[in-house]
Amino acid sequence: MELSELSSYQEASLSCSGLEEWQEGPQVLTYGAILICRKGKARLQVNYKDWQLYDGAVITVFPNDVVKLRVEETFQVEMLKYNPSLLREASLQLEQTVYSSLREDRCRQDTPVVTNIINGMFALLKVYFDQSECTCISQLVLCQLKAFFIGFHEYLQRNPQYRPDEVKSYRVRELFNRFMMLLEKDYKISRDVNYYAEQMNISSKYLTNIVNQVTGHTPKTIIDQYVILQLKMHLKRTTQSIKEMAWEFHFADVSFFCRYFKKHTGLTPQQIRE
């Protein structure tokens, strides 16, 4: 199965992978996943924040995260991928603070407790995945996701991980995460920095400062990069006409849509589909 997505009828999968697709450049995930590194070393960037992965490291990623991977040596992870519908169902039964904090502090290295939890969870699920006649995989995965999210969140609360470069401000990271979550929700509605600043009740100048501190880029650059990634995904995975896509993404007309796309990619939308 392609790493980029789950089939429409499959709610979850458990497999080993070298994450080759993530090495091709930034990707917008259409699924959520829990990963444990089984071999090698790599640097995984999630929403413009870097995490070091090596044997035993555990990290969570969510639908609409922007990921990019740089492998330093032979690399493999074991990964539980799940459909966004399972995350939505799990989230309805969890406090919002659990989900929000896991997006911020999502990785643990050199932590036997977390590694053992994932090893046990994956071993249990593998028993069911190996039974082709099992009809309750989605419910089993949902139960395990809720248990992991709650347990991992509680562990993170008891064992906060501070990095020297992040002591600069928890508020900075919190606001940047709010910006990214808003962008994930409204990228089709607006590509204007002022819109996102207003939604967050801060000035565009302050938002620019926040985003620059975390990524080294302007909010406009991040917005355009995210929109282009989504547009490429739509072009490759849907049969929508260019006109329909321009309308859905709130472009004034097809001409402006094509100019915007070519400005940021050097290609026309039609060339991406060829």
Strand and helix map with partners:
Blueprint: E1 12-17, E2 27-28, E3 32-39, E4 41-46, E5 49-54, E6 58-61, E7 66-71, E8 76-82, H1 84-92, H2 96-104, E9 107-108, H3 112-129, H4 137-158, H5 170-186, H6 193-199, H7 204-215, H8 219-237, H9 242-248, H10 254-265, H11 269-273
Antiparallel strand pairs: 1-8, 2-7, 3-6, 3-8, 4-5, 4-7, 6-9
Helix pairs in contact: 1-4, 2-4, 3-4, 5-7, 6-7
Structural overview:
With 274 residues, the protein is an alpha+beta fold. The protein folds into 2 domains: 12-158, Jelly Rolls; 166-273, Orthogonal Bundle (Arc Repressor Mutant, subunit A). The protein is 50% helix and 17% strand. It has helices spanning 84-92, 96-104, 112-129, 137-158, 170-186, 193-199, 204-215, 219-237, 242-248, 254-265, 269-273, and strands at 12-17, 27-28, 32-39, 41-46, 49-54, 58-61, 66-71, 76-82, 107-108. The strands form 2 sheets. It has a 5-stranded antiparallel sheet with strand order 1-8-3-6-9. Strands 2-7-4-5 form a 4-stranded antiparallel sheet. The radius of gyration is 19 Å and the shape is globular. The model has no long low-confidence stretch (mean pLDDT 87).
Descriptive tags:
single chain; alpha+beta; 5-stranded antiparallel β-sheet; 17% strand; globular
Give the strand order of the largest sheet, numbering strands 1, 2, ... along the chain: 1-8-3-6-9
CATH architecture of the largest domain: Sandwich
CATH topology of the largest domain: Jelly Rolls
- Which class of secondary structure composition applies to the elements? alpha+beta
Please tell me the total number of domains.
Answer: 2
Order of helices and strands: EEEEEEEEHHEHHHHHHHHH
Which range best describes the helical content: under 10%, 10-25%, 25-40%, 40-55%, 55-70% or over 70%? 40-55%
